[in-house]
Amino acid sequence: MADAPRSVSAAPGDLRRFLDDWKKRDREERAAKRAAEKALIPPRPWVVDPIAPDPGDNSWTYVIQAGRCGLVKIGVSLRVEARMRSLQKTSPAVLRLVAVLEGGLALERLMHARLGRDRAHHEWFRPSERMRALIVRHGGDTAFLSPLRVPK
User: Fold this and answer.
1) CA distance 31 to 52
2) How many domains is the chain partitioned into structurally?
3) Which tens digits make up the pLDDT trace of 69-100?
4) By three-state DSSP, how is residue 75 classified?
């Protein structure tokens, strides 16, 4: 007589071990996926060290001065000419490009930190000798940088 097929059943302990192993592998795979996704996300700009230059940063730090009020904007852009046009469209004052400096975001943050006492509003600063020296130190020409004229 031929043997009748037997039903395959696992002992409760085997099933529990299988489920535990499966859960462990699933957790490890999810953690690896999160780590891989996190590696693709660039660091947030406010976490960047202001002194250490980023070797992959090919942006420029620009210095722009507003006509009559004389305030100076220090910013960063990949395309300075396009940024200048964009700012001019929304500015009531005539803007002049004072300097374009290599250094990108790291240099911009350094300048903002060093010129904190001269800050007028966000990225706008009052011109000062400290600013002039900082621009010259980083390779900029300050021939157009005029002192602040206070309106009467």
Assistant:
1) 30
2) 2
3) 889 999 999 888 899 999 999 999 999 888 88
4) strand
Contacts of 48 (CB under 8 A, 6+ apart): 54, 105, 106, 109
Nearest C-alpha neighbor of 45 from the set 106, 96, 4, 99: 106
State how far the Cα of 71 lies from the Cα of 89, in Å rounded to an integer. Answer: 17
Three-state DSSP at 62 gives: strand
- Concatenated DSSP letters for 76-99? EES-HHHHHHHHHHH-SSPEEEEE
Confidence of residue 54 (pLDDT cuts 50, 70, 90): low
Whole-angstrom distance, CA of residue 11 vs CA of residue 144: 85
Q: DSSP assignment, residue 115?
A: T
The pLDDT-based confidence of 58 (bands split at 50, 70, 90) is: confident
State the residue range of the domain holding 21. Answer: 12-41
Could you give the CA distance from residue 78 to residue 57 in angstroms, rounded to a whole number? 9
**Looking at the domain assignment, is residue 46 inside a domain?**
no
Does one domain contain both 31 and 94? no
Predicted TM-score (pTM) of the model is 0.59
Tokens for 116?
A: 């904190």
In a domain, 94, yes or no: yes
